[in-house]
Amino acid sequence: MRSRGKIMEATLEVIAEHGFDGVTIAGVSAAAGVSRQTVYSIFGTREVLVTRTMEHLAVEVMTEIRSRLDGPETVRDYVVEMVIGGRRAVRDIPAMGALLRLDGINPVLHPDVVQHAIPVVRDLLSPLTALDPRVAAVLDDIVLITTRLGLSVVLFDDPSIADDDDLRAFLLRWLPASMTVPPE
Fold it and tell me: Can you give the residue ranges of every domain in the chain?
């Protein structure tokens, strides 16, 4: 495994165990078995290291979620299953679960979190245009509401929607208006 990959794996381990505030260049370099200089030369700063690592993980997670989204036949169903898959990833992957700990350099606290998430969500939602070509006209709106909804579901989880079926029922009950494609 190349140094960059080893460093990112070590960073995920540190995040999972100690949270974002527990990430140090020295700790990550030791865990990865590389020098601190190697970490600095590849990432520059601790903040960039954490951001790039979490972006990489998010893309991997979203790719996995997308692979499970072959069944939904409507825009609403696709969005619902994507949100449920995202929450499941945050619950199941320790480094993603660290997003729920609101400590210092947590990417969720970054003022541009929505702007950083939009390209990932847009990529995930791009197959919607194959379901219904009219989606192209409103895809940006669907991306924005899905991004905000997904962040809300993850950050403000609630016992009333704790399992996937409860969350699915809630989303299906309330999403129809915002996930309807306008007539041509």
Answer: 51-174
Amino acid identity of 80? V
Identify the CA nearest to 140 among candidates 170, 89, 148.
148
pLDDT in tens, 112-141: 878 888 888 898 888 888 888 888 999 999
DSSP at 35: -
Q: How far apart are CA 46 and CA 105, in angstroms?
A: 9
- pTM metric for this prediction: 0.74
Cα separation, 126 vs 7, in Å, equals 31
- Could you tell me which of 117, 115, 99 has the C-alpha nearest to residue 50? 99
- DSSP per residue, 101-155: S--TT-GGGSTTHHHHHHHHHHHHHTTHHHH-GGGGGTHHHHHHHHHHHHHHHHH
Q: Is the sign of the CA dihedral 120, 123, 124, 126 positive or negative?
A: positive
Contact between 62 and 30 (Cβ < 8 Å): no
Residues of the chain with pLDDT under 50: none
The residue type found at 89 is A
User: Coil, strand, or helix at residue 179?
Assistant: coil
